[in-house]
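Researcher: Let's try something more involved. This one mixes different molecule types, so please make sure each is placed in the same coordinate frame as the others.
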Amino acid sequence: MTRFSTPNPDFAARVRDSFARQRFMTMLGAELGKVRAGHCEIALAYRPDLSQQHGYFHGGVIGTLADNAGGYAAFTLAPADTSILTVEYKLNIVAPGDGTRLIARGQVAKLGRTLVVARVDVVVEKDGHEKPCAIALTTLMLMAGKSDGPA
Amino acid sequence: MTRFSTPNPDFAARVRDSFARQRFMTMLGAELGKVRAGHCEIALAYRPDLSQQHGYFHGGVIGTLADNAGGYAAFTLAPADTSILTVEYKLNIVAPGDGTRLIARGQVAKLGRTLVVARVDVVVEKDGHEKPCAIALTTLMLMAGKSDGPA
Amino acid sequence: MTRFSTPNPDFAARVRDSFARQRFMTMLGAELGKVRAGHCEIALAYRPDLSQQHGYFHGGVIGTLADNAGGYAAFTLAPADTSILTVEYKLNIVAPGDGTRLIARGQVAKLGRTLVVARVDVVVEKDGHEKPCAIALTTLMLMAGKSDGPA
Amino acid sequence: MTRFSTPNPDFAARVRDSFARQRFMTMLGAELGKVRAGHCEIALAYRPDLSQQHGYFHGGVIGTLADNAGGYAAFTLAPADTSILTVEYKLNIVAPGDGTRLIARGQVAKLGRTLVVARVDVVVEKDGHEKPCAIALTTLMLMAGKSDGPA
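Model: All components are placed in one shared frame. Result:
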């Protein structure tokens, strides 16, 4: 796993502050886990209103967590005046979201001057075990001088 | 636009029934729009609890709608005993979700024996105009003999 | 289909010049077809040395054509001092490359300030008919001030 | 790294045999490297006729190697009567292919009953050092009863 140094020593506080302002995260009951330079973990507990027609975690919830874990992994490496934008992501759902807890772990794979590529693994916890649920590859863009808050 | 014939004349009722059982759709306030053979539209109105840190529609909401519109577009072409699984999707977010309403339109591009490929366009409505917001390309799998309901 | 205006009236000559300098295109026997603002077509004839183990066009040849058709579609919309870089692409191979000629048609779907998104359809000709072979969605980057030639 | 057991003890010979029948690989001068259960490496040396307009490895060559390394990684885990098909792949080009040798390493991330997901890292060698060049995420399909040779 590549190690990264970050230009912003306060990156973890900045990620937590930004995450707290994402009202959709609050609504889903998502929580930030480990936040390190180049890495971010997000988890959420199962609730019936997050389910698809078979009663499992909805694919949209899985994708949301993956997108966000990749985005915040990139955000940890951004200068203090720079915000992050999702350019695109690709997500393979490799098993149904059948469990009590979903955890997405984003890891920066390549830090460029303008673009960042991150890999994300999403697992689902059931009976105390983690099982792979989804794998994503995402592209983020560093937006220098753009605030992370509302315009 | 390719036209498709479907082996299930009741496809629209089947899509509406399945959609109604996706509790996450209800929670988001999403509504089915046009449902035709090979095509499905899903929309939802803006609410602050669906937002990211700038106050726009969260990328996860955009991705959820895209994934589902592609999935139900494929579902319209499935035999009555066959359910649909998202294998993977790729989503480009081409503009912020800045508006009052999000609409995802899924269209089957290729129907195979086991796999279906669909394109999805997501637009955001603002001041009465539609603006492109995201573009997706998704792969779905036909699961013969698998029920669309809980196990 | 969205219509685009281009800041470079000589875009077609510029695309042809750049294409002619891609030695891999020459080696594959690829030829530029229609070049319009936001659109580019590339084709090549079957040769046994472009095949995979079943004797069809190799997936790598299909991907190469798709990548290039998307890239040159974007290039038609670039200012005269700007070159183009493939950021990423996603390609669905929807049928084997079984035929005598492969044609890739790239079309810009979204032109941003820094990034361009293009869709590409690849068809294979057999017995005078075109059959869908692959579908791609690609992200390109506009590199202002970067030459399109060797450093 | 997940370890896999394969149902075909002769997987390495089978991969080498299939690879040798891909005429496009011969034409590119590509060579198989390590072949283990769930893993496959393919490399090729620089030649001017594999280049794009800046003289670097063409993106199509990078994509071809990535697609093939993922496909053969999956093939190592296939039963002896089963062949492999690329469903789709997504490739991020993270740096120009500026070097003397390109190496793609495919690793199966998830083996399902019908579908296999593989990650691929492509590096470029220059002055004795490896530098990341591309990252891919690919979906393959196991085709039971389908020969790996010409119909």
